[in-house]
Structure formats: structure tokens, C-alpha cells
Amino acid sequence: MVCRSVSVGGRRVCDMTSVPRPPRPPSSLSPSRASDFMQCPLLYRFRVIDRLPEKPSEAATRGTLVHAVLERLFDAPAAERTAPRARALVPGQWDRLREARPELAELFAGDEAGERLATWLGEAERLVERWFSLEDPTRLEPVEREMSVETELESGLRLRGVIDRVDVAPTGEVRIVDYKTGKAPRPEYAEGALFQMKFYALVIMRLKKVVPRRLQLVYLGSGDVLTYDPVPADLERVERKLLALWEAITQATETGEWRPRPTKLCGWCDHQAVCPEFGGTPPVYPLPVRPA
Ligand code: SF4
What we know:
single chain; alpha/beta; Lambda Exonuclease, Chain A; six-stranded mixed sheet; two-stranded antiparallel sheet; 7 helices; 8 strands; 39% helix; binds iron/sulfur cluster; DNA repair; hydrolase; helicase
């Protein structure tokens, strides 16, 4: 089984239904996959090359749902972008998500009375509502929502991703916004959180020849907003980092040497059963290898 990308409310999400696809070498890099490799090269292999299925999680699915609601809210005229209207969008967007990804039904298996689902939907509504204490959508007119971006660097490395929201001021200044349904990181981890945003800023800089004025992370879980104003040197540093990362990924792809890197994040990894760190054996490597 593989994760098939489907569109829900304009957002690309993972559909875990059975769609066999032959393993193939990676051909591009997104912020999530770059983070996977930095976290654990073996996790990257399981996700990108073996394409092992992963169980849907309540937290990730709630994140997808909240993103869909915030995106759809901008369909309404500015004055009607209110918290009650946003909350009212939650059930309908959940229906759409379930239709697009039938495997999500397993999240609430055995919940005949619907109590867990009701609690979960209530949490999604609270996250949506909190957004109104952080931003005022009646005063925003995004030029892009759920914007798919892709660019090819001079080295040939393709970067891609989906940006939650792009605002452009009358002066032409660009702001990239990303919603997070979790809590803001402690200050010492802010750099890691900004990596994804700098990745997007680099893509915009290469695509549009403009350096975004501001990167903004909106944490709905804790009610925080983290901003960063990049300069070209920041983004060039990220580019060099990505090139080095890609070189390491290419080498691992060719040699089949994907090392596990155990951390406390292993607790959230779906692949412990096939991870040597947990006594498992990875599947046979499906790509041709050359000696290391
Ligand atoms: S369990 Fe930990 S070490 Fe093993 S693949 Fe997952 S993240 Fe990597």
C-alpha cells in the first residue's frame, strides 16, 4: 500500500487506500521529507522509497481538517469571515475529508455513540476559534491559499511544497503564513520550526525573484504567533543546507545505507516493527545498489 495524494479543500493529503506504485528513487525534496531525513534517514527510506503505510492519527487528521476550514473560510466575503461561520464549516469539511479518505473511518472504530468523534470535532472547533484571537480574517485578502510551489535549483534539485497562505501588502511585500495545530516550540527549538518557512521562502525567492518580507507561523494549539523576517543570506544558507542534505540522500539511495537514528520521536514512528533499533528487520531494499 502507498500513500496517494488527494485534494481535500484544495489541500493535498495522504490517502492510504491501496494503490500499488513501484518504488523509485526520490526526485525532489519537500520540507516534511527533508525533516524526516534530518530526524532519521531510515524513516525517510520507509516513507519515500518503501512507501510503507502509516496509520492515520487523530492529531494529524484534525490538523488537515482545521487547515481545510481556514482555507474555505476565505471563500466568504470579508465581513462574513466570523468565528461562528468558521465553526459551522467543521462538520462539512470533515465529511469531505472522510469521503476523500475512507480509511479515516478507522480513527473512530467502535465509537458507536459518537462520543469520541464529538470530542474530537469539538477540539477542531476550538482550534478554529482560537485563530480569531491571533489574526483577523476580515482584514486579510490572501493572494494564495494552499499554494503548491515547485522550483528547480541550478544544481537540478527540485524543491516542492504547499504553502498555507500568501499575503501581499499594497507595497508588494510578501508574507508567507503557515498554520500549526500544535503548540509553539520553546525558543531553543524555534530554528527547527522556521526551517520549513525558510524552505518556502527560498522557493519563492527562486521562483518569483523576491525575498518574502515576513514568515509567520500561527500556532493554534497554544495561541502563539512566531515571525521571522528573512534576508537573502538566510535563504542562501538554507539552499546550501538542502544541497548537502540532497547529496546525503542521493548517496544513501545509491548505496542502500539508511541508518536509523533513534530519538524520543521514535515513540511516534509507525515503523518500529521493521526498525533494527526495535528488533525489527527492514523490508528488502527495493532499488539497485552500488557498493558504499
Ligand atoms: S523507530 Fe526511530 S530509529 Fe526506527 S525508523 Fe522510526 S524514527 Fe527511525
